[in-house]
Amino acid sequence: MQFLRSVYRQMKRHNAFDGAAVLAYYLTLAIFPATIALLAVTPYLPIARVDQAIMDLMHEALPTSAADMFAGVVQQVTGERRGGLLTLGVAAAYWSASNGMYAIMRQLNVAFDVEEGRPFLRARGTALLLSLLFGVLILAGFSLIVLGGVIQSWIGDRLGFGPVLLDFFIAFRWIVIVLALLLAISATYYLAPNRKDPFRLVTPGSAAATVLLIVASYGFSLYTSHFGNYSNVYGSIGAMVLLMLWLYIAGLVVLAGAEVDEVVAKGTAADQRR
Fold it and tell me: Do 14 and 261 meet the contact criterion of CB atoms below 8 Å apart?
């Protein structure tokens, strides 16, 4: 309990709750161009239906109305501009997506108690690199998931779809998602703030953020499905409000994970001094 109180005090001192609201705003602006840029590349991958797998997970992670709104906007834009998306359009979408990552970098500097001393071009280059890394992780992870589904169908056609086979590939799907999410969060904690610490795949903060993000997304979807009818209050923009709330929760979880790592580091340093 003392540890949790320390994390909460750190979050209050760094205005993490306000910082998560800032992230929700910038991520709302970034998530559509990021998805459009990502889906523009998927037709050129050797594995089919990666784009459908990405949208299926979005429907599982988001409340139904927000997921439908998100998918509708993305499909409308990609359907109308598919011919030019791989030229200037994809570059503009990629740059817009990096703005969300740049906002995460600024908030993580606050969480880790460091100043942004990097030149502007280097900081923006880091944001672009992290955005590209996220895109590669998403495409690689979902390619493995789709490939796993192909292998599942091949084995099932020859041996039958038994419960053990189905359970194994369901577990395989979530293992890939969790590992990709853990790697993305750990890479963000390593590259985004202006500090020089060795890279570690698993830290207390990255592990906590990964678990909390999955649990919070599932819990938020359950809440909105059974209790929170935002369309009655906000009308046609209810789905957008839900999307921003989900991004607020995601941003708060990422900042909380950073605060966990900072509290652990300070506790370790104090023990070493003693």
Answer: no
